[in-house]
Structures are given as structure tokens and as C-alpha cells.
TrEMBL record:
A GO cellular component annotation in the UniProt record: oxoglutarate dehydrogenase complex
Name used for this protein in its record: oxoglutarate dehydrogenase (succinyl-transferring)
Gene that this polypeptide is encoded by: Ogdh
A GO molecular-function descriptor: thiamine pyrophosphate binding
Main location per the UniProt record: mitochondrion
Catalytic EC class: oxidoreductase
Pfam families the UniProt entry points to: E1_dh
Keyword Transit peptide: yes
Domain Dehydrogenase E1 component: 2-179
Catalytic activity: N(6)-[(R)-lipoyl]-L-lysyl-[protein] + 2-oxoglutarate + H(+) = N(6)-[(R)-S(8)-succinyldihydrolipoyl]-L-lysyl-[protein] + CO2
GO terms under biological process: glycolytic process; tricarboxylic acid cycle
């Protein structure tokens, strides 16, 4: 399994979660053993110029915090992009560390194809209007190298257009639009095919007192004999033992019983985060 994350350039520089996940990337409990980050860098965040959006030269500079290798590649050169992606995949599978591919490209139309970019970036968009699309550039290169000829190229384009046209024609036969089919893919165990919950009932999660007492006693004892524990901890354990005897629970003991009962049923539990190591939760 290889984890691949796709980012926009403005999001990569501007979203706190990108920085946070980099800092989690090499922690033993959180690592994915290397994520390949692909940044589609169209050099404008909605209508914002990079100089107004971040303080670093590249949007990907945030990845330097974990010394991740960062490859900046011209997205108008498909072979260079493929080469760089292969290097990134090899890096990840060899060293199990994050790696970033920065596809330096541009947006031919405005944000979400609706915005008029000439309002905010007129000079850039005058250049983009003159720029040959990447498909045309690459086709011309391959034709000049004799890899394909013009009729073969046109045939491939026609074949692809036909797929799109047929799908468009088929879409008109859809009479009912199920919005929920677009939103997520519901787990089959939870919902029926038409999206209704399979069942609103849930099994009893209660426990008999014998089990609770057993868990409470384990929770208030020390598993090793002749083991000196901190005085403060022995007081906590003693108090906990007295709570169990008096058939009373406080919040911490109730939490302990909940976790203990799951463990007793063989269900794996992972606790992480603040105060876990010292047993507060």
C-alpha cells in the first residue's frame, strides 16, 4: 500500500493540517511509512498571487521541516513528470519517508472554470493564452520523433472523444439523481441499497457486576510483587479499590471499566495523545 496525497499549491502552504501531518509522519504510532505528496502547483490560489499568500519562495517549503526531498518538475514535460514520480516512489519504498512532487503548471481557465482570471492576473493570462496545451506540445514532440504519426494521434483523440460523448448521451437516460451516491460510498453493513439504515437497534453493551468487580480489582492492583510504586500512585490505587468495594465509580474508573471490558472480549484498544502514558485516561 502506498499513501498518495494530492494538494493544491495554496492549500499546501496555507493549511495547518499539512504542517501537522508532516510532524506526525515519522512518529511510531502515526507513520504511514512515507507518503508521496503531489502538489498541483498552478501558481495562483483562487485569485491570490504567491507573493501575497506565503513568505517562502516555494509552496512546498513547509515539507523541509522533516527534510523530505522535494522535486520541482515542469508539468509541461510529461516524461520528466513520470521520471520524477518514479524516483519519488522509489525513495518512499526504500527509506519509508515522505517525499514531495511539485508539479509546476498553470490553470488554463479561472478557478473552477467559472472565474474570469483576466480580472486579477491579466499579464499571466495573456501568456497562458499563447501557451500550447500540454497534449498538443507532447503530440508534436512524439510526431517529430517518429514515435506516432498525425493520423494515429487524431485517431486516439477521436477515440477518447467518443468515450466522452457516449457517456454524456447515456447520462441523459438517468431520470433519478441520488445525491447520496455522489457524497460517499456507504458501508454495506450499515445501510440498505436505497440508503436506509439496516437496523436502528444495537446489541446490549451492559456487563454483569461480577465482570465489573473483576475489572475494578485489576484496575486497583499492581501486577508485580515486591515492586515499589510512587506513593501518589499507591494512594490512587487504594482509593480505586475502596470505590470498587463500595460499588461506586468515578469517571476514571468508569472509563477503565469500559476499556477493560473491551480488552476482556479480545478487542484491541489503542490510546494515544495527551496524558495517556501517565494513566490519566
Amino acid at each position: 500500500v502506498m499513501s498518495i496525497l494530492l494538494h493544491g499549491d495554496a492549500a499546501f502552504a496555507g493549511q495547518g493540517i499539512v504542517y501537522e501531518t508532516f510532524h506526525l509522519s515519522d512518529l511510531p504510532s502515526y507513520t504511514t511509512h512515507g507518503t508521496v505528496h503531489v502538489v498541483v502547483n498552478n501558481q495562483i490560489g483562487f485569485t491570490t498571487d504567491p507573493r501575497m499568500a506565503r513568505s517562502s519562495p516555494y509552496p512546498t517549503d513547509v515539507a523541509r521541516v522533516v527534510n523530505a526531498p522535494i522535486f520541482h518538475v515542469n508539468a509541461d514535460d510529461p516524461e520528466a513528470v513520470v521520471y520524477v514520480c518514479n524516483v519519488a516512489a522509489e525513495w518512499r519504498s526504500t527509506f519509508h519517508k515522505d517525499v514531495v512532487v511539485d508539479l509546476v503548471c498553470y490553470r488554463r481557465n479561472g478557478h473552477n472554470e467559472m472565474d474570469e482570471p483576466m480580472f486579477t492576473q491579466p499579464l499571466m493570462y495573456k501568456q497562458i493564452r499563447k501557451q500550447k496545451p500540454v497534449l498538443q506540445k507532447y503530440a508534436e514532440l512524439l510526431i517529430s520523433q517518429g514515435v506516432v504519426n498525425q493520423p494515429e494521434y487524431e485517431e486516439e483523440i477521436a477515440k477518447y472523444d467518443k468515450i466522452c460523448e457516449e457517456a454524456h448521451a447515456r447520462s441523459k437516460d438517468e431520470k433519478i439523481l441520488h445525491i447520496k451516491h455522489w457524497l460517499d460510498s456507504p458501508w454495506p453493513g450499515f445501510f440498505t441499497l436505497d440508503g436506509q439504515p439496516r437496523s436502528m437497534s444495537c446489541p446490549s453493551t451492559g456487563l454483569n457486576e461480577e465482570d465489573l468487580t473483576h475489572i475494578g480489582q485489576v484496575a486497583s492492583s499492581v501486577p508485580v510483587e515486591d515492586f515499589t510504586i510512587h506513593g501518589g500512585l499507591s494512594r490512587i490505587l487504594k482509593t480505586r479499590g475502596e470505590l470498587v468495594k463500595s460499588r461506586t465509580v468515578d469517571w476514571a474508573l468508569a472509563e477503565y471499566m469500559a476499556f477493560g471490558s473491551l480488552l476482556k472480549e479480545g478487542i484491541h484498544i489503542r490510546l494515544s495523545g495527551q496524558d495517556v502514558e501517565r494513566g490519566t485516561f
